[in-house]
Amino acid sequence: MSAPKKLLILPGDGIGPEIMHEARRIMDWMAQARGVRFDISEDLVGGASLAVHGQPITQQVIDAARAADAVLFGSVGDPKWASAGFDRRPEIAILKLRQELGLFANLRPAKVFDSLVDASTLKPDVIRGLDIMIVRETVGGIYFGTPRGIETLPDGTRRGINTEVYTTAEIERVARVAFDLARKRDNRVCSVEKCNVMESGLLWKEVVTDLHAREYSDVELSHMLADNCAMQMVRNPRQFDVIVTGNLFGDLLSDLASMLTGSLGMLPSATLGAKGEDGRTPALYEPIHGSAPDIAGQGKANPLAQILSLAMLLRYSFDMQEDAAMIEQAVSNVLDRGLRTPDIMSAGKTEVNTAGMGEAVVAELDRLNRAA
Ligand SMILES: NC(=O)c1ccc[n+]([C@@H]2O[C@H](COP(=O)([O-])OP(=O)(O)OC[C@H]3O[C@@H](n4cnc5c(N)ncnc54)[C@H](O)[C@@H]3O)[C@@H](O)[C@H]2O)c1
Ligand SMILES: CC(C)[C@H](C(=O)O)[C@@H](O)C(=O)O
Ligand SMILES: [Mg+2]
């Protein structure tokens, strides 16, 4: 029998530990009801790590993430550390993990569950059946380009600097992920940049166009300026299948896309690296939202993005298609039955707290498992 898969769990800050608790509930159920064995370890990141180790992520955690078959991440960020200095931000934990593990392709699917069409602030007719995949580049662009920093000018005023940098290789590898995904979906990619203003955007467009002509001419390719894309996503989001874009635009567009599905608390993500010589693909799974300090500790957080991130982990890293599909089905059924955390609550539905939603998903999994 092969060794159990190594799973590193990093709950983080704010609502992170609360929603991770519900994902763990699912893992416990899988072990007990389906005999699924994982080699699970858990560690500190973000403000939780700063409080104990004085740094947002330790080398030990980075090494453990590298050694794991997959990482399930919660969220980081805590206003307590706002004045601790830019080098001691909790958010460094996720940025460092992406960089150190080479996690360059962040897959952010925005799918509308039928029973949540009324939860979106957009009209049901606009979002019913929506299924978009945003592929966001996550180790380059303005997040990491140099020069960067804050400098004091001779006249005593200050200047903040960040630089958008993309190389051909960085653009090509993320575009390849988008084209490959499109082939398994509706076969359409929309590449998003601002080539009208930024040279890095111009290069982005050229590289994607060249790669398409060389290797992916069977896929329909379109290009869109990022500002127009934000508008089109609200006007007519179903026009999109796969969107591929850089780090910052992808961050903004995916938060926007989450509201089409009803709530930021609904969107999971997978961030993948390049396959190594050992045949393993480094991967981290996390909700796209943050630590939500405004609702932390109140039992109000929606755990579904975290639970759906676990489903993505099972599908992409462990090839457990049946288990992943069963979790997604359980989530869908629970929503069909009218259970809602406050962020997706509407008239006539039943409000539950974070634990209530997790328990309901487990009960539904149990029902589906017995019926199978
Ligand atoms: N990957 C990450 O760990 C990550 C992602 C985004 C933001 N952050 C960090 O999180 C902190 C808070 O940032 P923010 O407030 O701008 O963004 P946020 O995503 O934490 O919250 C934005 C809004 O959405 C709500 N929300 C988010 N997740 C929810 C959930 N699961 N259920 C119900 N409501 C939910 C929050 O209550 C809040 O009103 C900051 O420190 C930020 O840097 C971390
Ligand atoms: C916390 C922050 C560094 C992060 C990002 O900007 O990538 C977050 O907003 C996200 O979407 O994962
Ligand atoms: Mg974000």
Automatic annotation (TrEMBL):
<dbReference type="GO" id="GO:0009098">
    <property type="term" value="P:L-leucine biosynthetic process"/>
</dbReference>
<dbReference type="GO" id="GO:0051287">
    <property type="term" value="F:NAD binding"/>
</dbReference>
<keyword id="KW-0460">Magnesium</keyword>
<keyword id="KW-0560">Oxidoreductase</keyword>
<feature type="binding site">
    <location>
        <position position="227"/>
    </location>
    <ligand>
        <name>substrate</name>
    </ligand>
</feature>
<dbReference type="GO" id="GO:0005829">
    <property type="term" value="C:cytosol"/>
</dbReference>
<dbReference type="GO" id="GO:0003862">
    <property type="term" value="F:3-isopropylmalate dehydrogenase activity"/>
</dbReference>
<feature type="binding site">
    <location>
        <position position="136"/>
    </location>
    <ligand>
        <name>substrate</name>
    </ligand>
</feature>
<keyword id="KW-0432">Leucine biosynthesis</keyword>
<feature type="binding site">
    <location>
        <position position="227"/>
    </location>
    <ligand>
        <name>Mg(2+)</name>
    </ligand>
</feature>
<dbReference type="InterPro" id="IPR024084">
    <property type="entry name" value="IsoPropMal-DH-like_dom"/>
</dbReference>
<protein>
    <recommendedName>
        <fullName>3-isopropylmalate dehydrogenase</fullName>
        <ecNumber>1.1.1.85</ecNumber>
    </recommendedName>
</protein>
<feature type="binding site">
    <location>
        <position position="251"/>
    </location>
    <ligand>
        <name>Mg(2+)</name>
    </ligand>
</feature>
<dbReference type="InterPro" id="IPR004429">
    <property type="entry name" value="Isopropylmalate_DH"/>
</dbReference>
<feature type="binding site">
    <location>
        <position position="255"/>
    </location>
    <ligand>
        <name>Mg(2+)</name>
    </ligand>
</feature>
<feature type="binding site">
    <location>
        <position position="108"/>
    </location>
    <ligand>
        <name>substrate</name>
    </ligand>
</feature>
<comment type="function">
    <text>Catalyzes the oxidation of 3-carboxy-2-hydroxy-4-methylpentanoate (3-isopropylmalate) to 3-carboxy-4-methyl-2-oxopentanoate. The product decarboxylates to 4-methyl-2 oxopentanoate.</text>
</comment>
<feature type="site" description="Important for catalysis">
    <location>
        <position position="194"/>
    </location>
</feature>
<dbReference type="Pfam" id="PF00180">
    <property type="entry name" value="Iso_dh"/>
</dbReference>
<comment type="pathway">
    <text>Amino-acid biosynthesis; L-leucine biosynthesis; L-leucine from 3-methyl-2-oxobutanoate: step 3/4.</text>
</comment>
<keyword id="KW-0028">Amino-acid biosynthesis</keyword>
<comment type="similarity">
    <text>Belongs to the isocitrate and isopropylmalate dehydrogenases family. LeuB type 1 subfamily.</text>
</comment>
<dbReference type="GO" id="GO:0000287">
    <property type="term" value="F:magnesium ion binding"/>
</dbReference>
<keyword id="KW-0520">NAD</keyword>
<feature type="site" description="Important for catalysis">
    <location>
        <position position="143"/>
    </location>
</feature>
<keyword id="KW-0464">Manganese</keyword>
<keyword id="KW-0479">Metal-binding</keyword>
<keyword id="KW-0963">Cytoplasm</keyword>
<comment type="subunit">
    <text>Homodimer.</text>
</comment>
<feature type="binding site">
    <location>
        <begin position="290"/>
        <end position="302"/>
    </location>
    <ligand>
        <name>NAD(+)</name>
    </ligand>
</feature>
<feature type="binding site">
    <location>
        <position position="98"/>
    </location>
    <ligand>
        <name>substrate</name>
    </ligand>
</feature>
<dbReference type="InterPro" id="IPR019818">
    <property type="entry name" value="IsoCit/isopropylmalate_DH_CS"/>
</dbReference>
<keyword id="KW-0100">Branched-chain amino acid biosynthesis</keyword>
<feature type="domain" description="Isopropylmalate dehydrogenase-like">
    <location>
        <begin position="6"/>
        <end position="361"/>
    </location>
</feature>
